[in-house]
Design goal:
about 25% helix, alpha+beta, Alpha-Beta Plaits, about 230 residues, 6 helices, globular, 8-stranded antiparallel beta barrel
Length: about 230
């Protein structure tokens, strides 16, 4: 199974509220009949710069386009619609099972924190993700309100020039729960740990998911006794 993650930006800021609807329509037409999972997570609140990101698109598929063909195959009308796309082939490290995206009807108010992450220069990719799984994840997962928790390792860039090492996703019951979590000692401890393995240049957004096709179930995450 191939998983693709894409950050979609408005080529002509400011971003428009209708942009996610356009993306959803195009992706549905292109992929819904053939994919194994498809999620469009709409940005509802930028938490820093850049603030022109419209959505995170995630696709699960058995299709393997020809070399160099992913960018056009993923969102064929992106440029014409005024979008810039950075996309990657990814591997998920599941720390807590993201039941919110597998059963969206059961979690109607859910929001998702998403961000980019960059490893410190003195950390190899292997050491970076090992620290995250074994040291940082238990700290950050203890923040009140955190439900599903997934870190996507970016394996290969297939579109655009954005070059983080990972994407982080954490699900919260609603926006109020997310806001409350930021004032807790657990959140402070998590942020204090970040510079011990990562750069502090990551950017974060708050999103609302539109699950067009539920992706394959992950099973329990590493912090729940599963395999990350």
């Amino acid at each position: 199974m191939i998983e693709v993650a894409a950050l979609v930006r408005s080529a002509s800021p400011p971003r428009e509220a209708a942009a996610a609807e356009l993306l959803t329509s195009e992706l549905s037409a292109s992929w819904l009949a053939s994919c194994a999972g498809l999620v469009v997570a709409e940005v509802i609140k930028p938490l820093g710069e850049p603030d022109d990101v419209v959505a995170l698109v995630q696709l699960w598929t058995g299709e393997q386009p020809a070399a160099g063909g992913w960018a056009e195959r993923l969102l064929p009308g992106a440029a014409a619609a005024g979008f810039d796309v950075s996309a990657w082939l990814v591997r998920e490290h599941v720390l807590k099972q993201p039941v919110e995206r597998q059963e969206p009807a059961a979690y109607p108010g859910t929001v998702k924190l998403m961000g980019t992450a960059y490893r410190r220069d003195d950390f190899s990719p292997e050491a970076f993700f090992e620290y995250w799984r074994t040291v940082h994840a238990p700290v950050s997962a203890s923040v009140p309100g955190v439900g599903g928790y997934v870190v996507s390792e970016l394996l290969e860039a297939i579109a655009g020039d954005w070059a983080p090492d990972a994407l982080i996703e954490q699900w919260y019951p609603d926006e109020a729960a997310f806001d409350r979590s930021g004032d807790t000692p657990q959140a402070a401890a998590a942020w204090q740990d970040v510079p011990r393995y990562a750069k502090t240049t990551g950017v974060f957004w708050l999103l609302r998911e539109h699950v067009l096709a539920p992706p394959p179930a992950t099973g329990p995450g590493l912090l729940e006794g599963g395999l990350a």
